Amino acid sequence: QITTLINHKDKPKRSDKTLQAIQRVGQAVNLAVGRFVTVGEAIANENHELKEEMSVACIEARRAGETIAQLTDVASLDHPESDSHITIFTDKTGVVKAARLLLSSVTKVLVLADRIVIKQIITSRNKVLATMEQLEKVSSFQEFVQIFSQFGNEMVEFAHLTGDRQNDLKDEKKKARMAASRAVLEKCTMMLLTASKTCLRHPDCESARINKDGVFHRMRLALEQVIEIVTDSRPNGENEMAPISIYSGIKEFKNKVEGLRENLYFLSKENLSTMLEVILEHTEDFTDSAYTSHEHREHILELSKQAKMELEQLVSVWMQAQNQKAKDLMEDLEVAILKMCQCMNELKREVHNAATSLAADLLKYHTDHMVLKALKITGVEGNLEAVAEYTCKLSEQKEQLVEMCRLLRHVSGTEPLEITCIHAEDTFQVTGPQIISAAETLALHPSSKIAKENLEVFCEAWESQLSDMSLLLREINDVFEGRRGEKRVYLSLPRPGKHNANLKAIKPVKLDTEEQAKIAKLGLELHLLTSDVDSETEKWEDQENEIVQHGQGMSSMAYSMYLFTRGEGLLKTTQDLFHQAEIFATEGTKLASALHALSDQVRDDDKPLLLLEAEKLISMCKQLQATAKASAQGKSATFTKVDACILKTRNVMTLLCQLLPLCCKLQRKNKAGNGCLKPAPPWKEDRIRTGTNARTPERRAETFGIKSLENHVTNMTFLESK
Predict the structure, then answer these.
(1) So which domain of life are we looking at (predicted)?
(2) How far is CA 372 from the centre of its chain?
(3) Would you give the distance in Å from CA 454 to the centre of its chain?
(4) Which CATH number do you get for residue 149?
(5) Once rounded to an integer, what is the mean pLDDT over residues 525-553?
(6) Do the domain assignments include residue 712?
């Protein structure tokens, strides 16, 4: 609304409709500021240490809102320019100043409110830590139950605060770390209950004490990590140095290599060599692992050797190209770049296959939980020798699973999944010894119900983590195949043989290295256009708008086609590409229909341009559809068809880059002309009314399962203490 006012163009003729619209915008801004400031003042009254700063910011915001309302009070003036009353028409700089003051004071209120939220989380953490210290020192069941009841309530409060904070985080890496810490707290809360009860029942048992101490230590680490994320700091000012994965290393290396197309001098050959050395050092995690198959190990070593040779060839051509920029040399450089990238893609696929096949085999092998079942049985029997035998087997299993997590981290594909792998590795490292100490306690006290229950809880945590690993493995495979990740992939891609019976007779064809070299420039242009389109769609206030939705869909499909030119992504064959081009053209036709609908809402003088652009789009999409459906026999004809499809897709995307800002401008113009104080639509009112209830499932998910934990505490009996 503020942008609408600032961008308002002065015109000699001002209709009543324009004057009323300006006044409504001014009133809307003032009302919104009033509501915002009321909340800010309420927060200030509850937090005395920031009350003065918050109150000053709220007063500034309210004053700016009132100034904007006064300057836009123009509807009642027949000739605002000749009137002594100061308005937006006579003093536009006044509106700009008021808007700046408003935005700065609103930002100040938000920053202060954020500081208060952080303080609430720290205060809540401190309460939890203080109560944990009390729980560690209790010596009777009765005292433990009273303190644990308080601890449960404090954990519920901490869960709510950190859950809201996790949802507010924009950084996906921090979000993943927060989720991992909260998952630890969720599982450890139940472990703390049973481990503490076991220690109270068997105060002289060393294994029970070790078991309990491990839980308390892990909870403290998780609480500390939450505070690090919330305050964006680390103890002693140290920086977090996460190890680089093979996947991210290859991605960065390829970006540098491909950058040589644009600039031959932006990095040194030493830098490129060092980057490859680091990647190949990381592959030693696979080749040195006892769990990597002989076949995978040989392939990785072979591809590592090939990568060194390809880099030598690339550097040789690159150095020649720097000295003499002949056309032949630039073509040789393009081929060398493609060969280097292809080799790195093959290496990435090989380490991915090695890690995921190992994970699939291990998860399948351990799905029956035979070792855990044996520990429970031998523990109840009090058979210390058998328990010792099975704890050795569990330790072996733990080492296998930890190694699996380390290898999966290298191929996880995204930072959040890397963090999930690290969290899983930590969980297996810690939970394994805790199961062993719980099993030893049960073997020493085979008739103890609480010791048996404690072992059950730790075994459940292990089984739960194994189950989570299956989901994680699926996500890692999805990222690798391009089904999710950094760039959204359009999911309406038809599959050959499934959607079209005629495709069964067509042999799938892939582009070879030479063909990829020819089409690389066109693919790069397509990539840049997808970035431009994404940038334009992000400028729209209404992300649910039909034009935005179609634009985003087309951008995503064009990105898949760009990946095809590099030999990556979901489109594996030329037939996949042609199908994607058909769907892309259909989506473009739907966008043209949305443009026609918009033309009915805009003013008469804007309509012809919009209709002309819509007709252009329809014509281009028809041409693309015809090209994609045309038959092509032989390698040369197929490549010509691929080239034509990508060229026509690029042309459509170029038009889309021009269309989106035009539509956005007309949409805003139309909105300003029709006024901004329309009543809220029914669905929005329903959302407001049911806001609290709508959050209930999320709340339930965020409270660490505390309800069941509280029930557990309530049902505690003191039969054993007797």
Answers:
(1) Eukaryota
(2) 35
(3) 36
(4) 1.20.120.230
(5) 84
(6) no
